[in-house]
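Re: your question from the hallway

Yes, I did run it. Sequences:
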Amino acid sequence: MPGRARPMTRRGHMAETADETLIELPLQGLHAARGAKFVPFAGYSMPVHYAEGVMAEHLWTRQHAGLFDVSHMGQVLLPKDALAGLEALIPADLLGLPEGRQRYGMFTNEAGGVLDDLMVAHRPGDVFLVVNAARKAHDLAHLRAHLPGVEEVGDRALLALQGPEAEAALAGLLPGVAAMRFMDVAVMGWQGGELWLSRSGYTGEDGFEISVPVALAEGFAQALLADDRVRPIGLGARDSLRLEAGLPLYGQEMDEGISPIEAGQAWAIGKARRAGGARAGGFPGADVILDQLASGAPRRRVGLRPEGRAPMRMGVPLFVAAEGGEPIGRITSGGFGPSVGAPVAIGLIDASVPADATLYGEVRGKRLPAAQVPLPFVSPGYKR
Amino acid sequence: MKYTEDHEWLDADGDIVTVGITEYAATQLGDVVFVELPEVETQVAKGDEIVVIESVKAASDIVAPIDGEIVEINEALVDNPALVNEDPTGAAWFFKIKIEDAAALDEFMTEDDYKDHIGE
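Structure:
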């Protein structure tokens, strides 16, 4: 045999881990038939990209419509009257959430950190939550410790159809979707089953998330993919799309040690839950979070455009000088933005750093400049 | 053409060896968005990480396949990293290395060996 040399090392955040029993998605066969490459993610075997690759999939979604299988995410049902109890865990205005609407929220902890972020849908007969795959078990235990009637939905796939042509493609199967606005939720019948829809997503584009009974999931996905405007999109492009859209990823932009204010998610704290509001406070960590809202947080989220072509990825330390000094923060998410055509990143830095300061990310021992820029990197296409 | 287990190809012309990555490696990496090359006149030892290559997915290193001196680098890759996906075994060569001992090439795989290695 030839001499052994070091294999190419992988340093990316999607590094593969062995010795893990992975759960397959209900549409595994469809993904494989479409040339998907699979990676482990949150205990699931997930399609990271299909034959065309991340770049083409990302750009396709921004121009047409991309179909994502996000069945790894947690789907949870609560009784109709659970919104008041949920307000004790989430600093969003949930009692003010009208029926037929969905709202973004975060489970907070006593220290003012974030346990997970989620979507809360107020439906005519119940409350429907979608939580992150990696936090599903945690969130279910957290909910059950505080609320009665918490039910995990185990028999439904979750698909997302995203992009400017998503409405037209989906309306071919479900004409009613054209009447939905951003963050509306609805239930529609399809081939004898019930689809649970919301007009929302995680790409910065218009689109829908659709909970489908497992038995109908493949047929529904195939019906969408039969439309030339729709292509399957993997987890890789999902991450680059959400990064360009400035959307936080739990475990990166926010975690138990990062507050919603630091993570740039103050907008998700309802007026009613703030100081002087009708139901001010009353959620875990309210003292810390409301104090940060009033007097400022120690750190802030920042959008970054690295100069040059080198991506600055998660964990890259940030400095205010090209040489010397201690880090003032770090990159929480970063990579190449296919629609921007350049590297983009989100960082968490000391709040005292001036907003016009050039920052320096240390990549492979070299400090490379990056400009602070407003988020998002691309204009949202939401149909409000 | 010779091949390494690290999916590099080596094309020798006398004591000058041109090095790139195989089509298989380029496909595995995905869309390449950044390439950093070594400096000309650098002495390298086999196994040294001398090229950084980043795709949309991840960063990888490419190691020197053999001892020698870097005598030329392909600047076109720095300006247009996508060349690595478009023409990995042609226009997207990475560097040329001057070697002391041409016999050192004997240890590398032939095309047939390499095809077996990647299971084709």
